Amino acid sequence: MSGGFTIYPAIDVRGGRVVRLAQGDYARETRYGPEPLEVAGAYAGQGATWLHLVDLDAAREGGYTLRPLLRTIVDTTGLQVQTGGGVRGRDDVQRLLDAGAARVVVGSLAVREAETVAAWIAEFGAERITVALDARLDPAGGAWRVPVHGWTEDGAPLDALVAGYAAAGLRHLLSTDIDRDGMLSGPNGALYDRLRVLAPGLRVQASGGVRDAADVAAARARGCAGIVLGRALLEGRLGLADALREARC
């Protein structure tokens, strides 16, 4: 996994507000005061170069709603934005790229219609698509599985999906241990070790449960290409400057 290590501050938006969900549960939402644009501007002012922007309403219902916000963030902050939520077709990808997205994140559809998404990678280029395969470890079988529809429905085996996308030319993979997401319990290193075995050429973004700079360092040491930071930044448990410093070590 060559290249630098990238910090992706995350802004999850639901009902126009910055929120975080615990373990992907829409009933366990924490709201944060500042408006999304204000948060993005603050991250840019602290040295971030990328932003991870998620439309949580669209992730469950479809129909990305944040294009005006995306355009404004790109135009006013200089951040490169990877964004997703509710991407269901080729036109959705094109509209987000036209609105200024550097990369479009595809989640549920990447599980249900892998051939379609593989075609988008070929059409738009490997640098413009991030596939999000967020997983849960099946306690019975010991295998990782990828739920869909806002993490509310069972999906497919992680191993087969990763192998297929690696063969299709995928470059950027984001993967979250759903049980760690929003819990401040640390990323699951075993998940990223598994991904490195499955597809060592992918630039993997770690996500879920990040608490501090040590978690950033651990993800980097495991060969990840970047890390998504959500609740820890929003609540001041981890300073963005510290995370960026760790990324440069």
Automatic annotation (TrEMBL):
Pathway noted in the entry: Amino-acid biosynthesis; L-histidine biosynthesis; L-histidine from 5-phospho-alpha-D-ribose 1-diphosphate: step 4/9
Superkingdom, natural source: Bacteria
Keywords noted in UniProt: Amino-acid biosynthesis, Cytoplasm, Histidine biosynthesis, Isomerase
Reactions the enzyme catalyzes: 1-(5-phospho-beta-D-ribosyl)-5-[(5-phospho-beta-D-ribosylamino)methylideneamino]imidazole-4-carboxamide = 5-[(5-phospho-1-deoxy-D-ribulos-1-ylimino)methylamino]-1-(5-phospho-beta-D-ribosyl)imidazole-4-carboxamide
Active-site residues (renumbered): 12 (proton acceptor), 134 (proton donor)
Keyword Nucleus listed: no
Primary localisation category: cytoplasm
Cellular compartments annotated: Cytoplasm
Pfam families the record matches: His_biosynth
Enzyme class of the recorded protein, top EC level: isomerase
Keyword Amino-acid biosynthesis set for record: yes
E.C. number(s) listed in UniProt: 5.3.1.16
Family: Belongs to the HisA/HisF family.
Name under which the protein is recorded: 1-(5-phosphoribosyl)-5-[(5-phosphoribosylamino)methylideneamino] imidazole-4-carboxamide isomerase
Natural source organism: Luteimonas endophytica
